[in-house]
Amino acid sequence: MNEFFIPAVGSQAGPLLPYLIVAAGGLLVMLVDSFVKTLKKDHLSYLTLFVLLGAILVQITRVPQDGPVLGGMMLIGAYARFFNFLFLGVGVMTTIFATGGFDRDGLYRPEFYPLLLFSILGMMVLAAANDLLTVFLGIETMSLSVYVLAGGVHGNVRSSEAGFKYLVLGGFSSAFLLMGMALLYGFAGGTGFADLTAALRGDSPDITLLTLGSGLVLVGMGFKVAMVPFHMWTPDVYEGAPSYITGFMATAVKAAGFAILVRFVLLLQPQTAFAWYPVLTALTVITMTLGNLVALAQSNIKRMLAWSSIAHAGYLLLGVVTMISPAAGDSEMMLRSSEIGGSAGSAILFYLIAYTLMNLAAFGIINILGKGRGEDGEEIHRYAGLYHRNPVAAATLTVALLSLAGIPPMVGFMGKFYLFSAVVRAGLIPLAIIGVVNSLISVYYYLRVMVMMYMKDEEEDTYSGTEWVSVVTSGMLALLVIYLGIQPNAFQRAAEVIFRQITF
Amino acid sequence: MSFINDHILTLVTFVPLAGSLALWTVIRRDGLARIFALVVALIDFVLSLHLWFHFDPGRGDDQFVERFAWLLSGEVTYHLGMDGISLVLALLTTFLGPLVILSTWSAITKRVPGFLGFVLFLQTAMLGTFFARDMLLFYVFWEAMLIPMYFIIGIWGGQRRIYASVKFFIFTMVGSVFMLVGILWLFFQAGSMALTDFLNLQIGHEQQLWLFAAFFLAFAIKVPVFPLHTWLPDAHVEAPTAGSVILAGVLLKMGTYGMLRFAMPLFPDGVTFFAPAISILAVIGIIYGALVAMVQPDVKKLVAYSSVSHLGFVVLGLFSLTPMGVAGGIFQMLAHGLSTGALFLLVGVIYDRRHTREISEFGGLAHQMPLYATFFMIATLASVGLPILAGFIGEFMILFGTFHSSTLVHAKLFAILAATGVVLGAIYMFWMYQRVFLGKLSNDKNRNLPDLNLREIVVLVPILVFIFWLGVQPGFILDKIETSVEHVLAPLGVEQHHESQTSESHHARILPAGGTGSPNFVVLEAESH
């Protein structure tokens, strides 16, 4: 019991090194900012990049030592590493974009850097969680930092409102989560994932407690991934937060939510599947459809992408639903179901990569537009004629939006291909049809931005801001979007291998 | 040489793409961009000639096959291949390519490198669609076609270009997404995306009906089959001349090609079930397109509606399920590509000079522009299907094939009704010609119009030559496609067999069931009736 409370970190430092680097880096950045007075503006960003790249480097170079650490509180493995790369990569991009964002606003926020690192630490912990307590710890570390990131723009009312709204609703969701965890604790007699599995396999599991508890936990996670009807905060928060933060929330935070959601539903399979499958299916359909339909009516690109991110959460949930879809009928079907689960799970991972790349490319551009007018590049009508003023930015945004719409040869199409083929393999044809009809609807609102950029003439108040570092970074992401749209195989195979590891 | 033979399809497909990347990135000057694009398109045409000369018309299966693993563990492949049908359509594409680029010399003046880049990108997507033998690869090319066309219409188009381009995009997407679900379902059944594996599947009757409907919708929108045609006039009218030529010349054929290559052989039950309804729609399209064309005040819109009518013929020919009707349908695709392409180019010529296409603005142009009037006459005659010009052969074979179709109920009635479309076609085309070119030169604005210049002649002459050539020597094309048509229709073989038995007395003589007769023989015999 002693080692539970004061874990022997020293012996387990190896697998935990990336986490320690990010945590120590966050503290370091915070201290440097407070005590070093001769600091130039960009120095903190270099330091943050150094920390993030260091963590990535350690991830790559170290021989993996997979297995549970800290007395089973965390599970280090390929799955956690995959998400670590994703979070750290998004962190690097966000740091780069933030510089452009500060430049645009003329407002420097040194507290951004440590908060970013802490929230990434929370996500990394979340992806490696092997205990309900770790889940809560990760979610709260992540969320508390993001509340401040979203809401802390000095003197910006909309940002403050966004932060406050996010905080209140986030607190609400934490309450659900905690209640659910308490019930699960009652069910399993422990908080570890292993305890849960053991209790499930035990003689007479208390299904009522399990169903209630897992339902409440799913609600809490639903908030984080913006599943309807727990999506209310998304449009306002995405709109109010500065664009580089919005990009971070739309990609990393959402990916973190899915990292734990996938773990959790797999953990409680097949019991949760039977209890919650119909509800989840219905919510998935509503999430996709509502997200796309409301996005049609937006005139603010950040709100539009917020609703589109809800819709994309719907596509990802489609994968989750497919993964746990109860194998109906004969034994052959049972045999196949693990295969279907595997293809759906790896499709979710691939889709997360695709979604992250294309969304970051889009937000990277949106972030720097509108320089000199004290706003983000958010009004769609001000994109008129952007192509004339800044062809590279327009082309990058075009690639990102076409990819979000799922048009080949972009990676978004490949993501949908893997996802929908898993859905069809599971025999869920109606869901697949609803999915493709949704991506059809989405084409319309993505096209609208392109119409503005290319087909309308320049107007007086067309955005023109540029900041070449952000444009080049987004441009590289766009190239990656195209490259992975043509050669996705390596990533997809990796996703398959990674997914197999968590299902054993 | 073997390297060329092994990779020729990839080369033909992707050379234009390389050109478009260069145009988008390094080439900035307009003049250079035009010459560069032209050279790339010519190189591509020359490369595609290799296909023409090394193609073995005796084989009905795919030639010049390239195949290697692409996705998953090799279930999805990069798989290109070419049979006679793909050959002639690909040649049409590469042939029109340089001409289209040459025709934009003076019409497109803003953002020239961007425009030409999109034209070449479109070329790659279209060629890929014709060559792809893997369903996912096909779908990728098929969807990728939307992007360049969307921008060509939307950036360089006319007044209502945004509406037209978005409508084009959305309409086409509506069809394709259902096809995607169908493809995924078949993928799951077959365990691979290869077309040949799809063809080997045993699909239940009911599933075939659903899948056929999904595929047919995608292709019917592209053709377009009545009543899904409403995007076409908008797209044509708003598109710049080059866009219209590509749209009418090649893009619409994607639909009929898709029906022939995928929808029909994969789902024979679907074909039998839906053929009567589709034939009715095709006949409605033929007559409706002609009637609407008749009342158009705008020359370009008139030509656009004539496309609806002409492609109705193609669809009718395909679903007659007779070798002659199908071969006629393919021939008509080519003939329509050439004649309508020429008409759009000619309309573009006058639009460049007068910036209007209203018929009422013209009259008596023949006095002022005799050469132009002559060229226009030839294209008009080809379009209405005058013997010795390309249009005649196709329409005749289609009507003949339909008339003798044994699978189609009321086939004779359909053929007769469709034949009225030919008459109506003559009426609206000649009436338009009369109002624009004949009579007195009434509008003073037309007094000083220059006749065709050398560049325009260079663009038009090759097309007109081929219009004549195909009209006189149809075997030139039919030779290449005959075996392939039989090969593609083999899965529908039950019907063919059945047909050759029932109408043996008449039909078997014209096209022996085994396909042993030479195509020239087929046509000569056909014409003698």
Give unreliable regions of chain B as ranges.
Answer: 494-529
Q: State the low-pLDDT regions of chain A, or none.
A: 329-335
Q: What is the number of helices of chain B?
A: 23
Range of strand content of chain B? under 5%
* Secondary structure: helix percent of chain A: over 70%
Number of helices of chain A: 20
**What is the first-to-last residue Cα distance of chain A?**
28 Å
- The rounded Rg of chain B comes to 22 Å
Q: Estimate the mean pLDDT confidence of chain B.
A: 84
Order of helix and strand elements from N to C terminus of chain B: HHEEHHHHHHHHHHHHHHHHHHHHH
Count of distinct strands of chain B: 2
- Largest beta-sheet characterization of chain A: 2 strands, antiparallel
Structural class of chain A: mainly alpha
Biggest sheet of chain B: strands side by side, in what order? Answer: 1-2
Q: In words, what does this structure look like?
A:
The complex is a heterodimer of chains A (504) and B (529). With 504 residues, chain A is mostly helical. Chain A has a domain at 274-504. Chain A has helices spanning 2-5, 9-35, 43-61, 78-105, 112-127, 132-151, 157-188, 193-201, 207-225, 233-240, 243-267, 271-296, 301-324, 331-368, 386-389, 391-405, 411-425, 429-455, 468-486, 489-503, and strands at 67-69, 74-76. Chain A has a two-stranded antiparallel ribbon. In chain A, a hairpin with a 4-residue loop joins strand 1 and strand 2. In chain A, helix 7 (157-188) packs across helix 8 and helix 7 (157-188) runs antiparallel to helix 9. Chain A is globular, with a radius of gyration of 22 Å. The model of chain A is unreliable at 329-335 (pLDDT under 50). By secondary structure, chain B is mainly alpha-helical. Chain B has a domain at 267-493. Chain B has 23 helices and two strands. Chain B has a two-stranded antiparallel sheet. In chain B, strand 1 and strand 2 (76-82) form a beta hairpin. In chain B, helix 4 (112-131) packs antiparallel against helix 5 and helix 11 (241-266) runs antiparallel to helix 14 (323-354). Chain B is globular, with a radius of gyration of 22 Å. The interface between A and B is medium-sized, with 28 and 30 residues.
